[in-house]
C-alpha cells in the first residue's frame, strides 16, 4: 500500500537525516516509528507527503509515485493521506464541527470553502465521526474550550473526514498525560482496524508503541536499525537504538479506564506484549 524505496534525505545544511530507507506498509497495518531525537522520524513522515522533498528514492501510495507528482497532482494525492499533529493544528475560534469539516476543504472549490458550505452527506459523516470519537456533545463548542485529549480527537475526526488511505501521525501524544495518551493511541488503533487504514505513528514513548502498534520501526541516525513485531523489541535492541539506559521503568497503567489496557508492562515482562 505504502512503499518507501531507497529513500535518503540530506538537508541544505549538510545534515544527513535519512539514509537508504526501505519500508513497505500493507493496508491496515499500524506502524510505530521510534528512535532518539534527531533520528529522522519527522523527516521520514514529511518525505511521505513531501512537506520535505527527498534527496533520493521513491515513495508510492498504491500505484501513485508520490515523489514524481507536480504541485496540482500532489495536492490531490495529499487528500489520501490524513495528517494528525502533536499540536492538533485546530482553528481555535471555530467550533468543533467546523474544524472537522475543514478536513473536507481539500475536495471543494474555492467559493464553497470560502462560504463554508458543505454537502449534507459530508455534514452527516462529520456528525458520525464526532460521535465515534466521543465528542457528540461538544459539536458547537469552540476548539479552544477543549482539553488536549478532546482537541486531538477533533484532529483525528478531521483527518478521517478526508477518507484517507493512510494516516501520518506526528507525535500524537506528546502534549498529553499518560492516561489520555493511551486513550488516543487506542482510538487511532481501533479506527485503523475498523477502516482497514494504515498508519505511521512517530512516537517517543516506547511502551505506547509496543502496546498499540502492529509493527515497530526503529530509526537511528537516519537508518532503520529495527523493523519487526513489538515482541521482538527487547532490551538489547532498545539499547542499540537509544544507547545505554534503564529499560525497566515502573510505569503505571492502573489509571486507565478501559478494561482493554490491563496488559502487563511489555518491557518489564521481558518484551512479551499482549496486544490489544
Ligand atoms: N529543516 C531542517 N534543516 C536542516 N536540518 C534539519 C531540518 N529538520 C531536521 N534536520 C536535521 O535532520 C535530522 C533528523 O531530524 P528529525 O527532526 O527528522 O528527527 P526526529 O527523529 O524527528 O527528532 P525528534 O524526535 O527530536 O523530533 C537531525 O539531524 C536534524 O537536525
Automatic annotation (TrEMBL):
Major localisation: membrane
UniProt keyword list: ATP-binding, Cell membrane, Hydrolase, Membrane, Nucleotide-binding, Translocase, Transport
EC numbers, comma separated: 3.6.3.27
Topological category with respect to the lipid bilayer: Peripheral membrane protein
PROSITE patterns referenced in this protein's UniProt entry, alphabetically: ABC_TRANSPORTER_1, ABC_TRANSPORTER_2
GO cellular component, one term: plasma membrane
Keyword ATP-binding assigned: yes
Enzyme class: hydrolase
GO MF assignments: ABC-type phosphonate transporter activity; ATP binding; ATP hydrolysis activity
Compartment(s) where it occurs, according to its Swiss-Prot or TrEMBL record: Cell inner membrane
PANTHER family: AMINO ACID IMPORT ATP-BINDING PROTEIN, PHOSPHONATES IMPORT ATP-BINDING PROTEIN PHNC
Descriptive protein name: Phosphate-import ATP-binding protein PhnC
Species this protein is from: Nitrincola nitratireducens
Lineage: Bacteria, Pseudomonadati, Pseudomonadota, Gammaproteobacteria, Oceanospirillales
